[in-house]
Design goal:
558 residues; alpha+beta; 5-stranded antiparallel beta sheet; elongated
Length: 558
Amino acid sequence: MNNDWRLTVADAVRRPLFRDAEVVAGSRGLSRPIRWVHVLEAADTCQFLNGGELILSTGLGFGEAKEKRLAYLSELIRRKAVGLCIELGAYIPHVPDDMLELADHHDFPLIVFHQPVRFVDITLDLHEHLINRQMQALRNLESYSRGLQQLSLQAQGISKLLQHFQAAVGTQVFFYSPEAPPQFVPPLPQTVQSELASLMRSAFPAIPSAEAGNGVLALSDKKRIIYQPVTAMGHLLAYLGLILYEREADEYLLLTLDYTVSALAQVLMRRMFAEEQALATENRLFDDLIANRTLTEEQIRALLGLAGTGKTPVYHTLLMSLRRDGDEHASPLPPHELTGVFRSLLARLGFRPFIRCKGSRFYLLAIGPYGAADARRSLDKAMAEMRRVCRQVMGADTEVLFGVSRPGVRLAEAGRHLAEAEQALAFQHDSPSPYFADLGLFRLLFHVPHDSVLKPFINDYLGALIRYDEEHGTQLVHTLRVYLDSNLSKQETATKLYIHRQTLYHRLEKIEECLPPDYALPHYRLCLEIALRAHEWLNGERPLPPSRPDEQTARPSR
C-alpha cells in the first residue's frame, strides 16, 4: 500500500496537461511536494504565499525586465514555493540565462509551456489529485490505527507495533528505552546499532518538556532522525523514531509516528501495572513495617527476594505525602497509578526500589550501590522528578512532601528508619531539608511523651499567650513565631505578617506583658522555639506521625 500522499513537482510534470511542458532548470528539486497551485504574476503579491505552492505565470508582471524577473524569482524561492511554471508567449518569449542560473543554484524547478495552456484546467486537475491523495492517506491512517489497536493487545506487542510502523512509513525505525538496548526494524549491523545507541543516550533528553513533540537530530546533510518521546503520566518511558534519508517528514509520516507513540505508551503502562500486581510481597513487607512488627534480617530478605545472606548495599527509606490546598483529604487523588512510574524512575537512577502506596502516601525503600554523598545527590534528583510528575498529573496545586531516613545497612532495622522518615516528613515545613539527618533538635520532639512532658512544657512557656489569643481573638502566638523566625527583625516581621509596623509594636508590647522580660535571650528563646513548633504540631497545623502500638500516651485528636 502506497502511503505517500504527497504530489511532487515530478508527479505534476507527468500529468497529461503538462505534455507540452519542459523542465529547463532546477531539476534536482523535482521531489518537492506540492501543497497547492497558485497563479501569481508579480513579486509584490508573493507575501500571500505560505510555502509549498506550485506557481503558474505568463510573465505579465516581470516580462523581460531583468531586475523585475530576478526579484520575482528570488521572492518565490524565499517564500518557499516549490516551482514555477511559465507559459512562453508575448510577455516572455524565452527564459533568460540569469533566471536559469538562479533556479539551478537553488534547485528550484523552472518549467516552461511551449504551447498555450489553460491555467484553470491545471489548477483543477492538480487540486483534485491532491485532495484524492489526502483522502486516501486519511483512509490509510484509519486502517493503520485499527491495526495498532489490535497489535497492542497481543503478546510481543512492542516488536509487532514496530514492524507495523516500519511497514507504514517505509524507512528505518527504532525504539529506544534508557533501561534497555534500542530495537531497530529492520535490524542494523551491530556496529551501527552501537553507534546510534551512543548517540541517542547523549542527545535524547532524560526529561522531555511538558509540551514535548517531535524532535530532529541531524546525522548528515541528507540524513536525519525524527523522534518523539513516549510518555505516560508525565514520565518518560522511551523514544520512538525513524531515520530519513533525502526525505522530509510530511504530515502522514508525523501522524503515523504520533499514533504509534500513543499505542506504545498504552502497552508500556499495562506492562508496568502488571508488574506492580506481581509485587504483592513488597506490600506485605511495608504493611509489617508500618504496623511496627519486628522482622528478622532473613525474613525481610526473603520478602524482597534478596538471595543469600551476603552484605546488603546501603538503603534509605522514604515517605512521600500528597496533599492539595493544605488538606491531605481535600479531593480524590490517583497516586496508585504512579507506583510503576516511580519504580522506573528510581531504577533509572541506579536504585533497587521497593514501593507501597497507601491512601495518598508512598512508602519507599531504595537500595543503592552508592556512598552517602552520591546517594543523596541521586535521591535529590529522584524527589525533584517525582514532585514534577505528581504536579503534572494531579495539578500544580498539589503539595508534595518528603521524609528521608538516615542510610541503613541492616534490613532488620528498616522499621526504625521508616520512623525516621516519618519524623522528617512531620517537620518538613520547619526544616528546609527532607532528610532526618538534618532535623537537628526536632529529632527529639518525635520521642517526647505528649501528655506527661510536651504539653506541660508548652504551657509553661506559651500558656499565657495561648490563653490571651483564645480570650481576645488575637494572633500573638503566630506573631511571636514569625518574629523569632525573622531573627527579631521588626521590619521583616511586619512584612511577612502584612501589617503596619505600628500594629506590630502593639502586638510585641502585649507579648512582653505575657512573657518574662528576658524571653529574647538565647536560653529562653530556644525553649520558646521548641514550644512554638510543638504547639503547632500537637494542634494539627503540621502532619502528625501515626500512633504506634508501643506508645504509652495517646496522641491528641486532630
